[in-house]
Design a protein that fits this description.
By secondary structure, this protein is an alpha/beta fold. The chain has 7 helices and 6 strands.
C-alpha cells in the first residue's frame, strides 16, 4: 500500500482577516502537510487590500509566499469545479475555511456547490470528514446565526475569529496564531502555537 502525505484543504474567502488563512497555510506546510488551497475571487481582493499582495500573477505570488517548506502547496482556482478535491474519492483529512465570509457560509449551508469552495465543503460533509469554518463578521443577524446553527447540527465545527487574552498576547501575531491553534485543536493536530491555560507562568491563581 502506497503511503502519502496527509492532505488538508484550506479555503480563504473575502472576509476580513486573510492573515488567518495565510498563517494556517504556513503552519500546515511547515508540519509537512499537502495543502490544497482555494482562494475566492473576493479573497484575492482582500489579500491585495490587507496584505499588499500583488495578485496579478496568482500562482507566482503563492510560490513566493509559501515555497521552500516541507509540505506541498497545490493551488486550485475557485472556478475549477473539476479539481481533485471536488470528488469524494480523493482522500483528504479535512477542510478549513479561514476566514469564512457569510456568503460562503450561506452557500455551504444551502448545499449550493456553485464553485469549488462550496463543492469541496459539501464533499467533506457528505463523506463525513472534518469541516471547520472560521466566520469573521460583526454584528451577526439572524440569517447568519441560523446558517451557523444549521451547519453545527451537521457536525461542522464553527470557530469564530474570537481571540483570547488569558495567555497575555504580546503582538498581533500572537492573536492570529491563537486562532490557528484552536483550528488545529479541533482537528486533533498537535502544536505549540500558544500557551494553554494551566501551562503559562501568567496563569491566574
Amino acid at each position: 500500500m502506497n503511503s502519502r502525505n496527509q492532505r488538508l484543504v484550506v479555503g480563504i474567502t473575502g472576509a476580513s482577516g486573510s492573515i488567518y488563512g495565510i498563517k494556517l497555510t504556513e503552519t500546515l506546510l511547515d508540519m509537512g502537510y499537502d495543502v490544497h488551497l482555494i482562494v475566492s475571487n473576493a479573497g484575492w481582493r482582500v489579500l491585495k487590500e490587507e496584505m499588499n499582495w500583488n495578485v496579478t500573477d496568482r500562482e507566482g505570488i503563492l510560490n513566493d509566499k509559501f515555497g521552500g517548506r516541507p509540505g506541498s502547496l497545490i493551488y486550485h482556482p475557485v472556478s475549477d469545479i473539476g479539481a481533485s478535491i471536488a470528488s469524494g474519492s480523493f482522500l483528504v483529512e479535512g477542510m478549513i475555511v479561514m476566514p469564512c465570509s457569510m456568503g460562503t457560509l450561506s452557500s455551504i449551508a444551502s448545499g449550493a456547490s456553485d464553485n469549488l469552495m462550496a463543492r469541496a465543503a459539501d464533499v467533506m460533509m457528505k463523506e463525513g470528514r472534518p469541516l471547520v469554518l472560521v466566520p469573521r463578521e460583526t454584528p451577526l443577524h439572524a440569517i447568519h446565526l441560523e446558517n451557523m446553527l444549521k451547519l453545527a447540527r451537521l457536525q461542522v465545527k464553527i470557530i469564530p475569529a474570537m481571540p483570547a487574552f488569558y495567555f497575555h498576547p504580546r503582538s498581533m501575531d500572537d492573536l492570529v496564531l491563537f486562532l490557528v491553534g484552536k483550528v488545529l485543536d479541533s482537528l486533533r493536530i498537535e502544536h505549540n502555537l500558544f500557551a494553554r491555560w494551566g501551562e503559562s507562568e501568567h496563569d491566574a491563581t
